[in-house]
Amino acid sequence: MVMRLLVTGGAGFIGSHVVRALRARGHEPVVLDIVEGADVRDPVAVAAALRGVDAVCHQAAKVGLGVDFADAPGYVSHNDLGTAVLLAAMAEAGVRDLVLAGSMVVYGEGRYECPRHGVVRPAARAQADLAAGRFEPRCTECGGELRPGLVGEEAPADPRNVYATTKLAQEHLAAAWARSTGGRAVSLRYHNVYGPGMPRDTPYAGVAAIFRSALERGQAPRVFEDGRQRRDFVHVRDVAAANVTALEAESPGGTLSVFNVGSGTPRTVGEMAAALARVHGGPEPVVTGEYRLGDVRHITASSELLTKELNWRPQVDFAAGMAEFSRSGA
């Protein structure tokens, strides 16, 4: 069935790829984006954009870890107030289908196992440990070493910075909307998205974009900590395809469904920096030992649920995706 779909943040990095993917499937996307003068926090603009719409793909958000806690009001305003305004307008307009851009940051640290105590949730890393180069979380029971693994959707939420807190609040708002209206809500918890069109040269840019910008200036990528922190780098076209799949799927109303969206193959930040440097022709990354409070050590996803229930699978190979990203520019 051909649908008319509102894509908030549709002029942004991920949103623009979602728009292209929807058009390729024959759908009619409508874009609402702050860069085009339409703010998702504006009830009038949102109500106008919802006219004749079958479903909403909510990508608009302020992203990244931020600079310091002074960023908190901006994150809450854009992410949580914006989502509340959108959901209120959807309830009024009778639009009952939502796919939300979620994030793996709601988990905090990923899944860890202690040889003695099984699965454990490590505490936030202390600044004194980070300053001393002790980057790995330890077991809260015995202080022993932990083995990182893949986190599933059933893991408890544990947001550890302002951005993560606002992304979890978006999910709670969506769940409340679904219960109130009988609507269908899906949150796609993206892992580390990269690819063409990724924002650059701002404190809020993703680490892949920061490394690429350094290489373009002829500088070595500066890798924080020891470079061994694990992430799941998923290509933006795979993320866009997950959104299209979720929008076209049928699922029960009145509840929020949550899915991880990742490549399924963990990589270290150091490996990613080295891959970019290699395809760019150098210089090689420099591991600095620097750190940021609020960063987590390891967070990698299992996307098996999305594959099982919606038949989505990532298609872009890591090496090919990094080579394309290195060439793509802003």
What can you see in these coordinates?
It is built from 10 helices and 16 strands. By secondary structure, it is an alpha/beta fold. The longest helix is centred in the N-terminal third of the chain and has 22 residues, at 72-93. The mean pLDDT is 93. The chain is globular.
Query: Strand percentage, roughly?
Result: 15-25%
User: Strand pairing plus helix content: what structural class?
Assistant: alpha/beta
Distance between the termini: 34 Å
Largest sheet: 6 strands, parallel
- Oligomeric category: single chain
Give the overall shape.
globular
Radius of gyration: 20 Å
Strand line-up across the major sheet: 2-1-3-4-8-13
Mean of pLDDT: 93
Residues in helices, as a percent range: 25-40%
Give, in order, the helices and strands. Answer: EHEHEHEEEHEHEEHEEEHEEHEEHH
Low-confidence segments: none
Strand tally: 16
What's the tally of helices?
10
Index terms:
330 residues, alpha/beta, 10 helices, 16 strands, 36% helix
Concise description?
This protein has 330 residues and is an alpha/beta fold. The chain has helices at residues 13-24, 43-49, 72-93, 127-131, 162-181, 207-216, 236-248, 269-280, 304-310, 318-328; strands spanning 4-8, 28-32, 55-58, 97-103, 111-114, 118-120, 147-151, 184-190, 192-194, 222-223, 230-231, 233-235, 255-261, 267-268, 286-287, 300-301.
Strand and helix map with partners:
Elements: E1 4-8, H1 13-24, E2 28-32, H2 43-49, E3 55-58, H3 72-93, E4 97-103, E5 111-114, E6 118-120, H4 127-131, E7 147-151, H5 162-181, E8 184-190, E9 192-194, H6 207-216, E10 222-223, E11 230-231, E12 233-235, H7 236-248, E13 255-261, E14 267-268, H8 269-280, E15 286-287, E16 300-301, H9 304-310, H10 318-328
Parallel strand pairs: 1-2, 1-3, 3-4, 4-8, 7-16, 8-13, 9-12, 10-15
Antiparallel strand pairs: 5-6, 5-7, 11-14
Helix pairs in contact: 1-7, 3-5, 6-8, 8-10
